[in-house]
Records
---
Amino acid sequence: MKKEVLIYTVSDSIGETSQKLIAAVTAQYPDIVFHNNYRFPFVNHEEQLIEILRDAIKDKAIVVSTLVNAQLAMSARNFAEKTGLQYIDLMNPFFEILQSKTGTTPIQQPGIVHKLNADYFNRISAIEFAVKYDDGKDPHGFAEADVVLLGISRTSKTPLSMYLANKSVKTANLPLIPEVPIPEIIYQLPKEKMFGLICAPEALVKIRQNRLQALGLNQDSNYSDIHRIEKELAYANELFKKLEIPVIDVTEKSIEESAFVIQEHLKKQSN
Amino acid sequence: MKKEVLIYTVSDSIGETSQKLIAAVTAQYPDIVFHNNYRFPFVNHEEQLIEILRDAIKDKAIVVSTLVNAQLAMSARNFAEKTGLQYIDLMNPFFEILQSKTGTTPIQQPGIVHKLNADYFNRISAIEFAVKYDDGKDPHGFAEADVVLLGISRTSKTPLSMYLANKSVKTANLPLIPEVPIPEIIYQLPKEKMFGLICAPEALVKIRQNRLQALGLNQDSNYSDIHRIEKELAYANELFKKLEIPVIDVTEKSIEESAFVIQEHLKKQSN
């Protein structure tokens, strides 16, 4: 039987910050079943906090805190020391270092990371941009984009565009089909902002078969035929060479990893 | 003059995990200028690690680690203790608690949080779904969606759809325009999966004016006229009442906060 572990998250805002870290930690324990949907947002009163911590003890849960209110964070820490509650404070170790380094105290304003500032609106407009200019729908997007992704079907152009957009990178993409000429404007774009995507043909066969299945279509389609796919890839590679742009092999790469490669390229260029 | 703080991030994979936490911490110090683009990914050798840590001391930087390799993490901790380097390890406090609780050790596999498993592919297909069915482009999406967002122009339907999709929620949205009848299928959908979006009219005037400006269009348009907007909102509110669906006011809410409200509704329903 698999071991089970409960994780409580306590926050004075919506509690978004701890989720990514918990995902990274729990991924290191494939043999433990984690229950981490015990999410306690908007904890703003001491009584409310202590009640949650008491429940955590009963549930033998680990408590992860992103409380920014110093008073509440201290109460939780004291409670944990007295009771042996397993408690992790993600914010305060940082705050203490910053205090000793700069003498500055945090403003203790919950949820301020979601502030509607210029950065926020840039990110939102990058997301809207990526949706609007997905799939080469409108060639006007290519000139305005920060990044243009080119690739044959199922080389993860769309999710990669959305991921980059979420990092405020205005991303457009163009599907490559040997029979369809590419828009003239592509040849005039700065090559620094274009990236070619490829994938191993065997992997693409599987991915495309799954897609056909999901769409309820005949599996024997040309679309998932290895010879067809090899022809498409040869066409794409030739184009990438002509354009002199970097090529990213997305086989076995997650979106985060492919995006990382692109961001490193962009960083190098801006240096 | 503003104080400046350098943050180094050290990871044995791409170093994505620490970014969100650092954003949340630094948001609490509006008066400090943070330089946190010193990102050191794929740190897999002790010499490489120590060299980075030495540079951090020279730069008076804070080092944030998400190293999952126990040997490397211990070297970094020892180095920090000897030298007084300001060092925060985000993973190991968790690992220690899990070790004491379950006797299980982490598999120490860098980057495994980006594993291409079923969850990952669900998320990717939710993102593709949301792009495909954005803006009511294809009414087939409404039946298949987990969530359908309804709202007049500029109530953040698109970014909210993308955010939910990134949480693996298949989201479609329908723009509401008083002069355009809504698709018949909307009346047949389970009302539990529909959400109405509204926004204060004064805020919408500003947002729409900005949009017109961004598009290089005449600012005196009907589109940003307060009477027109009030009429659209009245129409939307009446429809939401008829459909008996929850209404979310997105004024002054970030996408994360609006999404949180929706996720809480979904959670309540599934209980």
---
Amino acid sequence: MSKQESSAYPPIERGASLLLAWRLDGRRVLLIGGGAVAASRLGFLLQSGAHVTIVSPGPLEASIAYRVATEPDHITWHDRAYGSSEGGDVSADDELPVGDYDMVLTAVDDVALSRAVCLAARAARTPVNVADVPPECDFYFGAQVRRGPLQAMVSTSGAGPKIAVIVRDLVADAIPENVEDAIEGVGALRAELRERAPGVGGELSKRRMRWMIGTCDAWTLGEMGAMKAPEVRRRLLDDGWEKHKVLGPEAVGVGASVSARVAKALDGAGAVWAAGAGGLFTGAAVATLATLYFVRR
Amino acid sequence: MSKQESSAYPPIERGASLLLAWRLDGRRVLLIGGGAVAASRLGFLLQSGAHVTIVSPGPLEASIAYRVATEPDHITWHDRAYGSSEGGDVSADDELPVGDYDMVLTAVDDVALSRAVCLAARAARTPVNVADVPPECDFYFGAQVRRGPLQAMVSTSGAGPKIAVIVRDLVADAIPENVEDAIEGVGALRAELRERAPGVGGELSKRRMRWMIGTCDAWTLGEMGAMKAPEVRRRLLDDGWEKHKVLGPEAVGVGASVSARVAKALDGAGAVWAAGAGGLFTGAAVATLATLYFVRR
């Protein structure tokens, strides 16, 4: 192996998790527990469209109780403890076996029950998370932020959960306000492109992907929201796709492009410069008037 | 339900994925395919410590070939196509059945084979991802960034993959350079705290968590790296934990704390304010001198 070849492929840095966006729409999830941690899990599960079976003796944490009352199509609540215990032995033997579910989450203070559920889930090949017990987790939750169709997660695989939260807040600040408009606009463009040039795989599929990437590269995030307008999409497809061209915003009459570019340039360091310049002029003006006033007296 | 109660719990915004950090250390993954997409998957799998079985006729994409040659303990390569086909029917019938694996990924241009693998994986309850065919995916990959133990992912659940990449780059810029030091320092502190006050669950566990969160709140990310020093941790534990106190960096002699706090305060909006103020004074000074000069002539 030559030096150049090996340096092209850096050594593998192990210790990571595989970060995933798990699809739960229409799937069945078993949630064992009814406290604050279970409440947090429930929120994420409902957002993902899962049907959640909660097993926990009441009273439930307030937000869980609210969701049970208002989301009857998405939640079934069993007001009892999970599993059985005989002669002091806790087991996951229950009329709602973990193997009937697509995912199992436990958030209870019962170490023996958690362990029994984990073992049963592994035997049934059901993905499982036991809150606060890493060895009994097939997956961890991270610190998250959602902006409509865009989601971001920060994870330290348990090494620093509080730091994950701090970084998540920085990440949330870094996500542009108009990202939802951009996703909506680009999504509508891609959908119409697929109507014009349908099919999966092959040369056309590759050309479609290249054109979409090229077009996205020619627009800023702030400009992409303009693609929500049908006329803009029509011009991109008629004058761009059909003619094997990639068009920027100016080419399809998106007038806000200049101001959007300026806004983008001013973002971050640019804003510091602008504020400095603004301050410079304000300071100069005030000082000039003041100096004239005092000198002329 | 009173107005106040319902406004405390916002309506569920569906359509999200459940973002997860999947643990694959020591797990077995079947990767069908040997091209560019498979290469990207392989990188993430190796970082997560999985053992990967690759099934694909050679030649392999260059980086896959390199990993096969240099990671013999983590990769087994079968130089052949996956599955069988008889009378034009493709099936996932193979001597390496998907049910023997903890996860199956396919990245091939063969639609019939992908579908067969997906069906077999679902029957065997093995999580599956078929590249570019969302309905055949239990999970999606997002745009990712890794900084040692910290990982972040941006996903649009397929609505705007290119936008996810753009936002990922913004997110990468927003993650502080020294975050690895912070995680290492806080991780070492937490490990030593667990040695002093061991046990899972109960009051002690809660006090431990409260103290860790309180301590993290009293330190900036930039300061936390100082916890890598054993003397700093010893003082935090002896003078803080043992005495039921939360200590900031000054209390344990971390000198950089003031400048770090100033740097933190100046970050973002603070920098704009400071630049504006700086400009104000500079502008005032220059204008005053200039005005005096011209008026006095």
